[in-house]
């Protein structure tokens, strides 16, 4: 019991980016650094009064410290995160682990554990055509055809890929890893940086590319290019582009780009890049349009917006399912949402 508490305590501290002294300061020095050190070493467990103070400071509920759901994260590729201090990296890792722990515990309670099945195994990438065909095969196996995808996050969740959202610093778009071996693929989206739905969609598929494509022996720069190609092909397939705008274009109006963005949920800049990849427009025209976008101040915030929903409600839906079927109590539901019971009650309306 002491060791479990110690491990969970350290995880919560790192999740919040605190040193032991930071935490003591945050607690108003009501608990000394030396006492906190003993908790983290498993030498002592705090009494209920001190535990309440710690929960408040670390933004967790008391049963967080006794949760035994095992979450073993695989390697996380800190491409852009390499510029982050180790404290920030640890916070992201532990926040990912904490959210996943609650999610997996809920699935265990409901008996819903499912093993991920690779939709279209690919052994080797010989050219960009392999990426196009790979994306096409996945869309076919997932029954998507060539039309727009309404909600990427929901699609991935339906296919046993966990999609989490964290509000982190403006240093990375997303990351991906595997949990408990190769059983559960996980994609994390940084909502602190991804302000628009089209960017969230593209990033989700980009990270999926890192999970599914055989990139181990490919250098980082080319791997990024392949994952960009994969994301573009998933959002706007070649066949759909040919249907919408034809095989070759000398000019495309911003209004046409905007309408396609609203339909397919892919940014104008990503479309321009993809059209050039497929030789629908020339490299010269691509550079011209990028210069135009810069001149208009649209690089960060483009005209036209994709208004579709781009988040998954599966975790919350499962909580209310477990409540409705009397599998969990209201208190347990609040804990799984990492909310105080009073707060959860005020946001919930149970019928029955």
Key structural traits:
434 Repressor (Amino-terminal Domain), 352 residues, 3 strands, Arc Repressor Mutant, subunit A, mainly alpha, 53% helix, elongated
Describe the structure.
There is one protein chain. By secondary structure, the protein is mainly alpha-helical. The chain folds into 3 domains: 1-68, Orthogonal Bundle (434 Repressor (Amino-terminal Domain)), CATH 1.10.260.40; 73-312, Orthogonal Bundle (Arc Repressor Mutant, subunit A); 314-347, no CATH class. The protein has helices at 2-15, 20-26, 33-40, 48-58, 86-110, 128-141, 152-158, 197-212, 220-235, 238-245, 254-264, 268-277, 283-296, 314-324, 330-336, 341-347, and strands spanning 162-166, 174-179, 184-190. The protein has a 3-stranded mixed sheet, sandwiched between helices. Helix 5 (86-110) packs parallel to helix 14 and helix 8 (197-212) crosses helix 9 (220-235). The longest helix has 25 residues, at 86-110. The chain is elongated, with a radius of gyration of 23 Å. The mean pLDDT is 91.
């Amino acid at each position: 019991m002491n060791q479990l508490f110690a491990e969970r305590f350290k995880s919560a501290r790192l999740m919040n980016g605190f040193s032991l002294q930071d935490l003591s300061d945050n607690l108003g020095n009501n608990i000394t650094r030396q006492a906190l050190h003993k908790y983290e070493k498993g030498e002592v467990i705090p009494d209920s009064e001190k535990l309440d103070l710690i929960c408040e400071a670390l933004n967790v509920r008391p049963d967080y410290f006794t949760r035994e759901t095992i979450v073993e994260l695989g390697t996380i590729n800190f491409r852009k995160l390499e510029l982050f201090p180790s404290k920030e990296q640890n916070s992201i890792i532990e926040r990912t682990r904490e959210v996943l722990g609650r999610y997996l515990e809920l699935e265990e309670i409901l008996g819903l554990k499912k093993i991920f099945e690779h939709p279209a195994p690919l052994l080797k990438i010989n050219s960009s055509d392999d990426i196009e065909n790979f994306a096409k095969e996945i869309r076919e196996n997932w029954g998507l055809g060539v039309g727009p995808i309404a909600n990427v996050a929901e699609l991935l969740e339906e296919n046993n890929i966990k999609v989490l959202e964290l509000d982190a610093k403006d240093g990375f778009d997303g990351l991906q890893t595997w949990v408990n071996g190769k059983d559960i693929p996980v994609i994390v989206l940084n909502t602190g940086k991804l302000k628009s739905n089209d960017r969230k969609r593209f990033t989700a598929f980009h990270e999926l590319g890192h999970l599914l494509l055989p990139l181990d022996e490919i250098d980082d720069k080319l791997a990024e290019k392949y994952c960009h190609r994969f994301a573009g092909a998933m959002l706007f397939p070649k066949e759909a582009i040919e249907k919408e705008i034809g095989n070759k274009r000398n000019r495309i109006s911003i209004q046409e780009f905007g309408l396609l963005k609203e339909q397919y949920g892919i940014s104008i800049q990503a479309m321009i890049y993809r059209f050039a990849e497929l030789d629908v427009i020339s490299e010269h025209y691509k550079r011209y349009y990028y210069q135009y976008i810069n001149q208009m101040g649209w690089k960060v915030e483009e005209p036209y917006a994709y208004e579709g929903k781009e988040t998954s409600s599966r975790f919350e839906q499962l909580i209310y399912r477990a409540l409705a079927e009397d599998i969990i109590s209201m208190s347990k539901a609040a804990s799984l949402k990492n909310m105080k019971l009073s707060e959860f009650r005020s946001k919930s309306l149970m019928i029955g």
